[in-house]
Amino acid sequence: MPFSHHSHSGEFCPSHAQNTLDQVIQAAIEQGMEVFCLSEHMPRSEGDLYEEEIQAGVTSASLVSNEARYFMTAVQLREKYASQIKILIGFESEWIQGSVSLKLISDSLSRYPFEFFVGSVHHLHGVPIDWSRALYSKAREVSGGTDERAFEDYFDVHYEMLQNLRPPIVGHFDLIRLYCDDPNLSSGGLQKWAGVWQRVKRNLKYISIYGGLLELNSAALRKGLEMPYPAGEICQEFLSMDGRFCLSDDSHGVAQVGAKYHEMFKYVQEQGIQNLYFLDLAPAGTTEGLDPRFPRTLVKCRSLAEVKEMEFWKR
């Protein structure tokens, strides 16, 4: 699909991404993307740095400096490529330590006029759950040793994030699937766990009420899972609530821009999703229907039939 609301570059996410931000944007242009949203990771506290970052000398202060360079570079590149692609500048938030995370996110929003952010949960009990199987297992043990208990805790943390942030884009809703024992949900799906499914429905309902966009994220496919984030049963539940979906490649470099989008389009059709939503910049003077936190950002919609006819599919 010719939109992505979630992307990273090696220039500003060197621990696990590649290529410069300029190169990533050029790749999006070459593919015929119409809207490409930039969402480098926000600064985190010292206690939440990855081991690779610590070894590389990364600090909280250096992450704040990195954010400043990112925003300045993003503005320059948007101007450079304004005639070729629509770029929105945001960040991916990290909900790890409750009030600590809230302050860090609020600080980022106050420092720069970001146009959106992706609300994500990558940690459970302070442990990254999408970095390795070993780390996921460590977090699961804290939850009681089973995937069911870990999923319950994860969706509770996720709900806390939603309530505090009301993110415009909800990132990889069921990221916790990645390293669990049954990531493809082949043994009955999440509904087999009553407590988990109740939490899933609660979270989806909250998103639908405040009007967030639920991200269809292709990263799960390139990581070997059979379904994108979120899984089909989650998509069906959100559809029943008249929830709105957007699209993301969650790219971490040139090679991943638009990756698995043909498979994604098939998945969208299979789920019966008829409309796809995307962010755009509002014309000067627009006020109606805007999130006061992001006075330049509009949410627009195109039917799946319209998306199918876009230039992206012809390249």
TrEMBL record:
The name this protein carries in UniProt is Histidinol-phosphatase
Source species: Penicillium cataractarum
Q: Name one GO molecular function term.
A: histidinol-phosphatase activity
Short name of one Pfam family for this protein? PHP
Q: Name one GO biological process term.
A: L-histidine biosynthetic process
UniProt lists the family membership as follows: Belongs to the PHP hydrolase family. HisK subfamily.
Q: Which reaction does it catalyse?
A: L-histidinol phosphate + H2O = L-histidinol + phosphate
User: Which SUPFAM superfamilies does the record cross-reference, listed alphabetically?
Assistant: PHP domain-like
Quote the EC number: 3.1.3.15
Keyword vocabulary terms for this entry: Amino-acid biosynthesis, Histidine biosynthesis, Hydrolase
Top-level EC class, please? Answer: hydrolase
